[in-house]
Write a structure and sequence with these properties.
This protein has 143 residues and is mainly beta. The protein has a single domain, classed as Jelly Rolls (Sandwich). 4% of the residues lie in helices and 42% in strands. It contains 1 helix and 11 strands; from the N terminus they run βαββββββββββ. It has one helix spanning 19-24; strands at residues 2-5, 33-37, 40-45, 56-59, 63-70, 72-77, 93-96, 103-108, 111-115, 121-125, 135-141. A 6-stranded antiparallel sheet has the order 1-9-5-11-3-2. The longest helix is centred in the N-terminal third of the chain and has 6 residues, at 19-24. The radius of gyration is 14 Å and the shape is globular.
Length: 143
């Protein structure tokens, strides 16, 4: 996992294929929903946050880039080893139904977190101090 601010995302581009293209999505018109572009699956959301359920997911082969454009949200991770040996669903995601929390981060406006393939995460966790749903951009980068 990489945790930084959006203005530093370009510094990781030499390490991650298509990351420059992900950064360019910040400058495209905002339309809530999911779309596929060459090498990317893009999800723009303004979702309600949900209580933590100990359910994690990981992309089997893709790097997941999650940016908070406004508001804040809690994100949790669990142990990478829990994704080993699990079969992905039709969308290439591995699901872990009852994982312990290995780390938790509060992402605020301008923060980005990058999850490597098979690294389990849970996004959009509700906290007592959350006033309104965050506006987020989540992109899965294909290999």
């Amino acid at each position: 996992m990489i945790y930084d601010t959006i203005d530093h995302i370009h510094e990781y581009a030499p390490l991650i294929d298509h990351l420059d293209s992900a950064g360019e999505q910040l400058h495209t018109p905002w339309v809530v929903g999911t779309q596929a572009l060459e090498g990317m699956h893009i999800r723009r959301s303004e979702d309600e946050l949900t209580p933590f359920s100990h359910r994690f997911k990981a992309s089997k082969d893709s790097v997941t880039v999650h940016m908070v454009l406004s508001g804040s949200e809690l994100v949790a991770t669990t142990y990478h080893e829990l994704s080993k040996g699990k079969k992905p669903d039709g969308n290439g995601h591995i699901h872990i139904e009852d994982g312990p929390v290995a780390a938790a981060l509060t992402l605020r406006e301008g923060d980005v977190v990058i999850f490597m393939p098979s690294e389990p995460y849970c996004l959009g966790i509700e906290t007592a101090g959350t006033a309104s749903p965050p506006r987020t951009l989540t992109i899965e980068l294909e290999k």
